[in-house]
Automatic annotation (TrEMBL):
Name by which UniProt lists this protein: Glutamate synthase (NADPH) small subunit
Span of domain Dihydroprymidine dehydrogenase: 25-136
Keywords for this protein: 4Fe-4S, Iron, Iron-sulfur, Metal-binding, Oxidoreductase
Gene3D superfamilies attached to this UniProt entry: Alpha-helical ferredoxin (1.10.1060.10), FAD/NAD(P)-binding domain (3.50.50.60)
InterPro entries reported in the protein's UniProt record: DPD_II, FAD/NAD-bd_sf, FAD/NAD-binding_dom, GltD-like, Helical_ferredxn
Keyword Zinc carried by entry: no
Keyword Iron assigned: yes
GO molecular function, a single term: 4 iron, 4 sulfur cluster binding
Superkingdom of origin organism: Bacteria
Length: 477
């Protein structure tokens, strides 16, 4: 009788890939987790219970077939595991690195709920596709047949690139427009290398370009080319700009020098990793070295900022968040990594104002959690008389992002937006009220996860191909 290869969660404990010591990893921007070895990946995959209702899959935005590729990995059928993983996810090696698995697949693992600790889904996902690249299983994009239709994609972030991949595989002609000099969006310039090394992103960009995707970089819509021109040049257009406008701070001294946006700080640091010269870093404006750093916010962007500041040699790094640890929106795993690296978290603390210009300190008011708000989360309330001053040489605002005013920037008043400024579009297809124009990712959802942008890009691409095919059928009759 064959030995059961799965359901070993009772006898095999959860084991993450080895994490580099904080004292060592603080000195560079390399990824902090090592790769699983073949035997360890198989062992950890074998812990899957192969449950009849896989909550891990249900809670993955892409509905990745996680139990099956865990089974394939556990039984040594790794190339099949890769094929199953790639079938639903355009960039599994990226999601394996940056998805908040503790809130999605792993957080809903059945064996986790039964007290046996979750399967290390993200680490296995990363291992599968890294191995596929190494073994040559990742094939070039070669459409079975070329199509005459073309699609213009505005934005080379994860949503736009996922759509480009899907469209090219269907033979559609694709041009991607982006304001930056490298494709990848926040994957390239927003997420630090210690979470996502840049050669991983550049490798996918190269695959897309080799597969026939045309990139028009350093191209800003409304300045270098009009939205109307893009519509005229293509049979359909996908808006995948993301949201990059930083929410602002209020209070006395909020405009002081030394108070900077998270996206500017992270972009600067990531540019340095490419060997670029950045004037704002050379001048010291966006360099944390030997400075007292205060980051305001509790999301993943805030975690990226505090951990970047540590690596730049900051004298001290503190993070202010107005709620407690249990209510922070960022990944608990990332928070733990930051604490290991020396970051101090000031929970239930919010900025009231700022001293000095350039900034020398943050006036902090202590908070407590009151009644739940409309979202169900407890609202922070000020504790009167508990204010104090936090010394700071550089304050980084990581308060979240809002959409830019695209109808005004692009001189396209017909582009309908919500009261939040996001583009109105159907969630299933991305269709807007303008014929042939689609919108996906954060510009529709608001600031969200990379995995949701990938899903939107794939869904919109499929809807566009279906539309093209329907039009071709009608024309042929």
């Amino acid at each position: 009788m064959a030995k059961q290869p799965m359901l070993k969660f009772v006898t095999v404990n959860r084991d993450m890939p080895e994490k580099r010591d904080a004292e060592m990893r603080n000195k560079d921007f390399n990824e902090i987790y090592s790769e699983f070895a073949d035997t360890k990946a198989a062992e950890q995959s074998s812990r899957c219970s192969q449950c009849g209702v896989p909550y891990c899959q249900a809670h993955c935005p892409l509905h990745n077939n996680i139990p099956d590729w865990l089974n394939m990995t556990a039984t040594g059928r790794l190339e099949e595991a890769y094929a199953i993983s790639q079938a639903t996810n355009t960039f599994p090696e990226i999601c394996g690195r940056i998805c908040p698995q503790d809130r999605l697949c792993e957080g809903n693992c059945v064996i986790e709920q039964s007290g046996h600790e979750t399967v290390t889904i993200g680490a296995v996902e990363k291992y599968i596709t890294d191995t596929a690249w190494e073994k040559g299983w990742v094939k070039p994009i070669i459409p079975a047949q070329e199509r005459a239709e073309s699609v213009g994609i505005i934005g080379a972030g994860p949503g736009g690139l996922a759509a480009a991949d899907r469209l090219r595989r269907a033979g559609v002609q694709v041009t991607v427009y982006d304001r930056h000099d490298r494709a990848g969006g926040l994957l390239t310039y927003g997420i630090p290398g210690f979470k996502l090394e840049k050669d991983i992103v550049m490798r996918r960009n190269a695959q897309l370009e080799a597969g026939g995707v045309t990139f028009r970089l350093n191209c800003e819509i409304g300045k270098d080319i009009t939205f109307a021109d893009i519509r005229e040049a293509h049979d359909a257009v996908i808006i995948a700009t993301g949201v990059y406008k930083t929410r602002d701070l209020q209070g006395p001294g909020a405009g002081a020098k030394g108070i900077v946006n998270a996206i500017d700080y992270l972009t600067c640091s990531n540019r340095l990793s490419f060997g670029d010269s950045v004037a704002e870093f050379d001048s010291g404006e966006l360099d944390a070295k030997d400075k007292k750093i205060v980051v305001i916010g509790g999301g993943d962007t805030a975690m990226d900022c505090v951990r970047t500041a540590v690596r730049q040699g900051a004298e001290s790094v503190k993070c202010l968040y107005r709620r407690d640890r249990a209510n922070m929106p960022g990944s608990q795993r990332e928070t733990q990594n930051a604490e290991e690296e020396g970051v101090v978290f000031e929970w239930l603390a919010a900025p009231k104002g700022f001293a000095g210009d350039p900034v020398t300190g943050v006036m902090v008011q202590r908070m407590r959690l009151g009644q739940p708000d409309a979202s169900g989360r407890q609202s922070p309330e000020v504790i009167e008389g508990a204010d104090y001053m936090e010394d700071a040489d550089l304050v980084i605002k990581a308060l979240g992002f809002e959409p830019e005013d695209l109808p005004a920037l692009w001189n396209e008043p017909e582009l309908a937006v919500t009261r939040w400024g996001t583009v109105k579009a159907q969630f299933t297809t991305g269709e807007t009220d303008i014929d042939g124009v689609y919108a996906i990712g954060d510009i529709v959802r608001g600031a969200s996860l990379v995995v949701w942008a990938i899903k939107d890009g794939r869904d919109s691409a499929d809807a566009i191909v279906e539309r093209f095919s329907a039009s071709a059928s009608v024309a042929a009759e």
